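Standup, Tuesday
Yesterday: got the pipeline producing structure tokens again.
Today: sanity-check two examples.
Blockers: none.

Example 1:
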Amino acid sequence: MTKVKKPALPSIGWREWVKLPDLGVKSIKAKVDTGARSSSLHAYDLYQFERDGEKWIRFKLHPVQRSTHEIVQTEAKILEFRSVRSSSGKASLRPVIVTNIELLGLRWPVELTLANRDEMGFRMLLGREAFRQRFLVDAGKSYYGGKPPRKKKSKRR
């Protein structure tokens, strides 16, 4: 009996630029964390509401690290509320949404918990459930998917 070889998985680095098209996020730097099970997205000004009998959440986020200039306001259907333990060991109940993510030209749905990550180094954390059986992580490299084009600064006269 011959063993069928699985196709090789593409590699990603320990940090990658990703897109969240359903949320209107053109690019956000994510830390790829094999030690975290779930993924988390920076969110603030969370407002829960009902639409057609289902729970939804409206929120804002700053997609650029160490900057509050760019603000994206968006909304998504709430999948559930989940108790998540932070790296410091503190548990909190967070809303969970499902949205599409794009990386290396691939698009797939991921579950994201919403939390204020202003004090964290990355506005998004990509946990292993999001990339399991899709990618191999090369912990020594970054940005296999490339970097987004830089915005041109306007010239002052």
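Example 2:
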Amino acid sequence: MDDPNIHHQLIVSAIVIAATTFVHGVFVAAAAAIFRASKGSARGFLRFFRDSTALVLLGLWLMFAHMLEMAMWAWTYLRFDLFDGWEPALYFSAASYTTLGFGDVLLPESWRLLSGATAANGLLLFGLSAAFLFNAAGQLHLSGAKGRH
């Protein structure tokens, strides 16, 4: 019952989760610094255009972070020879990380705990991205509302 591979899977999962969370933290911190620096005085359409562009760029920046993190999981799967090539590893990583989980491509049974770790990691980091974007949109809305009074 006590498969020693379970401990190996948990250690690998913890290392990849720590690495992807660190990477995501760097991306969010960089986005926050750029967002703070980009705030300035603007009115009317110029403000709308600036704020809309800022949110689009923040979203794209964070999606790039997620794509990098999915690639980190795919690299891990390849490192342990769990897939034959980059495409199936990245496909499985994306399906698991986004919690979509089609089920048409699976990890070997002795490594299946990694799929749950990948999903939990993606859920956490997408939540962090959503919270950041929600906060950024709120700051833009509030700063716009202050200018109208």
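Quick observation on example 2: The chain has four helices and no strands. The first helix runs from residue 4 to 38.
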